[in-house]
Design brief:
The chain is mainly alpha-helical. It has helices at about 1-10, 10-30, 50-115, and strands at about 35-40, 45-50. The chain has a two-stranded antiparallel sheet.
Length: about 120
């Protein structure tokens, strides 16, 4: 094992960075750099270069926005009504508890009067 590490990796830094380099090689294969040509409104040709990093971070941003939109839709469609329902149930339970406590207080006063 040590022989494999020393043969393929010249330092600890290169060993630790190997997974990141492999990941970036995969990203470069999936999203290669692009050269684009566009015609401007004046009829001139414009040339653009889109690097792999730009395309990768644009993909990450779009994916993040889609995940955030899905999560917020889930929260507002499911959790918020559920929380509102639980809040109403809690308010009803508190009102019922207050009513029971006032009834108990009245009963205790009457019982105390009868006991005297």
């Amino acid at each position: 094992m040590l022989h494999f590490i020393t043969r393929y990796y010249s330092s600890l830094t290169s060993l630790l960075g190997a997974p990141f380099r492999a990941f970036w090689r995969l990203v470069r294969r999936i999203l290669p750099a692009q050269d684009m040509t566009a015609i401007s409104s004046g009829g001139h040709l414009d040339y653009y270069h889109l690097s792999t990093a730009y395309r990768f971070f644009k993909f990450c941003a779009k994916t993040g926005l889609i995940i955030w939109a899905s999560w917020s839709t889930y929260v507002f469609m499911y959790h918020r009504p559920m929380l509102d329902r639980r809040t109403r149930q809690l308010a009803e339970a508190r009102a019922q508890h207050a009513q029971h406590m006032s009834d108990l207080s009245v009963f205790f006063k009457r019982y105390s009067e009868l006991h005297r």
